[in-house]
Amino acid sequence: MKPMTRDLPDDDEARTFAQAVQAQIAEDILCGQLKPGIRLRLQTLCETYDVSMSPLREALSALAGRGLVAQDGQRGFRVAAATPQDLHDIVETRVHIETLTLRLSIERGGDEWEAGILAAHHRLERRPRSNDLLVDPLWEKLHRAYHVSLICACGSPRLLEFYEALTDNFDRYRRLAVLAAGRHPRPKAVHGAIVKAALARDIERALKLMAGHVRDSAAQITQLFATGRFEARDNARRRSGIAIARK
Is this model's pTM higher than 0.90 or not? Predict the structure, then answer.
């Protein structure tokens, strides 16, 4: 976990700093360094991220809005739990949102949208996921860009924002599963088929392929989880509030 620079006096700078703290904590949650269900002890986090209490609380409140952190009543914050039921809810909600935005994009997208899809798919295909890395940041970035390219012409910033939050939560489960199993999921290769259907304006086929892709990925994630591994089990790490310190 990278320490942050301390508060800046200007309001805009302070807000930007809180956003940077939020981004760093989100990264540590999404990559599994902060385990599901652990209590986030504020003083420990202040020391870990080299930040004062005010921007830390602002960052945690924002992360709660993104579903990555849960507010534990008056007792503080925890990393959001990870359960099979929650994963199922995320998957089905993502299917609804991603197929809706894909339908709208196929109906509304023009030449620029088509070119963006082809470019994003090309970049992803040229950079397969590394088998040597459990978390491959470049592949993660390219994979997200591929999915966003397909739906970005939907015309609804709010739907796209909701999609990003859903996909963050989905990807957290995938990374937790990979860390638990020590290997990547192997869903069916359908990226090219989805591109072909979208560019052909074959809405029903594109939506069917996308829904199947998301659900197949989720099934692979579930298989990777060992029984009882959805939640953090190291009590000492629970007490500390920090699961794994970045070397």
Answer: no
